[in-house]
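fwd from M.: "can u put these together and see what the complex looks like"

so here's what she sent:
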Amino acid sequence: MAEENATSTYSMAEPYDQAIELLRRAISAANLTITGEFDVSERIHKALMLCIAPCRVLFAHPSSGDAEGMSAEPESAVFTPLHIVVSARGRHTQVHILRVLPRQQAAVGDVQLARLSRMETAVSQAIEKIAMRASMAL
Amino acid sequence: MDTASFLNSYILEERFPKALKLIRTALGSMEVAVVGELDITEKPHPGASSLSRSTILLVDCPLLDLEALALDRAAAVFLPLHVLVSAAGEQTKVSVVNPTGIFNARFPAGSVGPLDRLVSRVGMALESLVQQHA
């Protein structure tokens, strides 16, 4: 059986800075909260004096409901909050998120998998309003 | 798939605040930095005498970040790494999950090695704390 990808990638026609703002608004409109951000490119630049294309991680969390009690379990804490990666790609932008795979390919419990899957669905639906899956993008 | 193969837990014989400081120092000695912290302490139940604190430390190593992201920025989906620190009375429990072990899937090109090494460094840092107390 061919392995499936662990992540999903979306393409946005907008340049990086504009794309991030659109993404923040889309995430907020989907009843999700961005609990923090991590600028990977800035981190690498400061630590190693190397420049890479802009890349930032947004940490997304449901605004209510599934957020409670989920993160305190180790198997959930590894992916909560969910990472939304925004990276510049020339004049356009790519967005990457975790792809929650079926039970047969996961080593977490059913309840945790279901919650993670719901969160991933909410995030991907928010992203799909402003971006296109990379496999379909020109 | 086997949960035990990717989940490592450590018990530190220190209360939560001191354990947190020791963890930061131990990680630093392995060139791993705490780049963020998320307090996920649950709301207390009515009648509860105290809060049981939990926090997720976001940890990374810039060199391993660079290596993981070199071929595919999607690797940042798994960076920084999450380390769960929870108060357990007079002790503190620390859990680290290797994301490459959660799903049987194809990870972004070139990311598995650096992710595994990051988890390994975190593990060595935490083991040094456990051994210090032993």
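replying to her w this: Chain A is about 35% helix and 30% strand.
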